[in-house]
Amino acid sequence: MVSSEKEMAASCGVEWRINMPDGSSEILTPEKGLVGRVIFGIKCMVLGLVWKIWDFLKKAWDLAIDDPKKVIHCLKVGIALTVVSLFYYMRPLYEGVGRNAMWAVMTVVVVFESTVGATIYKSLNRVTGTFLAGALALGIHWIASQSGEKFEPIIMGASIFLLASATTFSRFIPSVKARFDYGALIFILTFSLVSVSGYRVEKLLTMAYHRLSTIIIGTSFCIFISMLVCPVWAGEKLHLLAAQNLDKLANSLQACVALYFNDDNDDMAIDHKNLQGYKCVLNSKATEDSMANFARWEPAHGRFNFQHPWRQYLKIGASIRRCACCVEALNTCLSSENQAPEHLKKQLSNICLRVGSSCSSATKELAMTLKTMKKSAKTEFSIEELRSSVKDLQKELKSLPQSLVNQLHTAKAQQSAENEQKERVSTSTAVSLVEIIPLASFASLLIEVSVRIEGIAFAVDELAKLADFKSAEDEKIKQIQPIKIQPTQQ
Amino acid sequence: MVSSEKEMAASCGVEWRINMPDGSSEILTPEKGLVGRVIFGIKCMVLGLVWKIWDFLKKAWDLAIDDPKKVIHCLKVGIALTVVSLFYYMRPLYEGVGRNAMWAVMTVVVVFESTVGATIYKSLNRVTGTFLAGALALGIHWIASQSGEKFEPIIMGASIFLLASATTFSRFIPSVKARFDYGALIFILTFSLVSVSGYRVEKLLTMAYHRLSTIIIGTSFCIFISMLVCPVWAGEKLHLLAAQNLDKLANSLQACVALYFNDDNDDMAIDHKNLQGYKCVLNSKATEDSMANFARWEPAHGRFNFQHPWRQYLKIGASIRRCACCVEALNTCLSSENQAPEHLKKQLSNICLRVGSSCSSATKELAMTLKTMKKSAKTEFSIEELRSSVKDLQKELKSLPQSLVNQLHTAKAQQSAENEQKERVSTSTAVSLVEIIPLASFASLLIEVSVRIEGIAFAVDELAKLADFKSAEDEKIKQIQPIKIQPTQQ
């Protein structure tokens, strides 16, 4: 899409081609004369605009197809807003809640986020911020009103200045920013609004009560809709993101090793999309952080308890990124100028492919552990298999020089036959040894990747302990037992 | 701070110790009896609370000392809010702008951000969103009012549902999210508020006019204060962040190489803080993205034009992170189990230290190019020096096996003297070759780092072209010339 846009941009001023639905195309050529040029210019503009809108709509459509949950969220917002508007349309409610119904509408617009956690976070922050600021503003307003007409504006102004500055500063403190950023904003907002209104409006208390009650109506409505109608949980998203990142890393790793050794058996693995998967992993920190922040506001849902250890996912994410960093270094070996010759690569090909595939399957097993939330003996087996394959690789690396020594001997034999200088022997060996370096560093990076996968395994294991994952085998036995018993019962 | 908190948490229930200002300490022991225990419990709680508040204040104080610009921002927000409140306090303005003055207050609270770019982004989005939504809502309101009392609520409800859903969806599209996220929110907000109010309030047009004018007053006030009083420019922050990241990377790299070869001359470089600098670089993507988004809203300021190529900083940032990824891999060589023996390390020590320091100085030169925004011949020299040192390292790597061959010959001589099997020769060589692998991979990672530094240099050079950096040498000549000319003129 972008490339075709560039083509169009490049061709602008040269020629404009319209592609007809039947496959033919028509070229727009600029007409001569002022009127002709103006018409051509307008045609150009309109077509450009149509193209841009078409492009935008196509992107939006792709996005909707790619993630239907986003569409559902939009419909939920639409429904929520329309329903809340009833509070204003319906006369009985109008008389009860009055003009302040606009606060309910405003609350729905501002508070309704795409995940349940974010909605609860904003709702609780909004209600608490409004309540605290309202109470404080009323208190200060009372003090100010007792101190005479001259001092009243001074006290109000000073209190606004001090509280606004202090609260704004608190938003820079990381622990406040993570949990109460929105609440602090609402605190400043409500405090200044109530202070300012308090100077004019009578029945301040009634207004404050109405405003708070409409906000509570709005927020609880948002929380219910977001939790009951196709809920999107931040915690679940975070959980799935970790599992997806592990899968991407596994595919990326396998593709990289297969491509390095030109492994034809593994055509499926060598896919450009798979190969570049680690890049998504490297850039996922911001999403993980915000999801973890929202997840802790969520009640128990699905397989997750209220006190699910969401922070541990950040540790898992960090260890996945550390591994992705190493896969990135591994990937550059593919495009490096210095490549080991094919005959050397062949010597390590089998064992490296084995290490690569056992790295990949261990990572996939870890992803499976996360997805199913069940500890499986398979994971331990795959880690053991990874360790043993790495040990074999290290052995092969040790035995690799032997073949080089054999080459040296062959070279020596040739040399003594030809009676040449000693110098030449060492040169021929040297070339072989320099040639080995790219392969050796590829292999040692692969070993480092395996070490980091063990780091991920450790973090996942910690999560399994903290969140009390069940053992997959125990469950299977439980499932099998009733089936075995049933026939005897019959 | 955290550790002492943990200590306290661990000791809670066992003993409470109060540290007096004179250095002595008093242990609180639980008294016997119910009353004693209750008093002890309350003491515990109060002390814990005091400790938490003290800790929070200390963190806030450290933050303020660390970045006084944040304090200035808070004072600016305080001043802006207090001044805007005058719009409401002062009677003539009250009569002009009326109750809608609260929209000015609300605008200041919501729109005032810590950087000029973010403030302008929010201001323009708020004004445009309010205007478009207001105009559309008035239009639909007019159509609805023409179609009879029955259809009016249906038309209003349907339009709210459709527009809210569509606009919410547009916020998921990356290009909209980056530029108009806040505007879309305000669009939904204003549209529903005007639609809902329109059903009850007469003089809708006057109200809309007043609301828009107060918002324009609020936003322009925010923009002026943020631009005129100690402005913090997002663009400048982005620019400095790139330079800082380069410096951190340079220090991290130098410390890593020095530590690997136990270089005692470079004690200054081996600093844990320096060594870990690359980690900040790896995590800077989110900040860079948001700064680049805000920077494009900013007018020309300082050394930056309006159309300064801010997007190029994202490319520079990406190339810096690619390099940091490689430095991370280099860093793990420090803690790896397989280490090359000291006598091998010594053979490459000098040249590797040279490559490390030339990598580091090239990176620092690039940082200097960014800081001064002047192209210097020094940068090219340092890149040339980097290339030549890398070539020398590659040569040394080639000549390194020669010494191993010499070792082999010595071993062979010993062996023929002792009449032992051929097997043993190859084993003794093999050990040396396996030992070389960690060193070889360190060296090839170092070479890869140098390649990526050239990538950064390329990105910085592109920026220099796009932003038309002046040459540092030309400016010096210009500065020197007038001094030379002056005496002859006199």
TrEMBL record, chains A, B:
Please tell me where this protein is predominantly located.
membrane
Q: Does the keyword Magnesium apply?
A: no
Gene Ontology cellular component annotations, sorted alphabetically: membrane
Transmembrane portions of the chain: 34-54, 70-89, 101-121, 127-144, 151-170, 182-201, 213-234
Membrane topology category: Multi-pass membrane protein
Q: Which UniProt keywords apply?
A: Ion channel, Ion transport, Membrane, Transmembrane, Transmembrane helix, Transport
Any one GO BP annotation for this protein: malate transport
Q: Where in the cell is it found?
A: Membrane
Q: Which family does it belong to?
A: Belongs to the aromatic acid exporter (TC 2.A.85) family.
Kindly provide the name given to this protein in its UniProt entry: Aluminum-activated malate transporter
Q: State the organism named in the record.
A: Dillenia turbinata
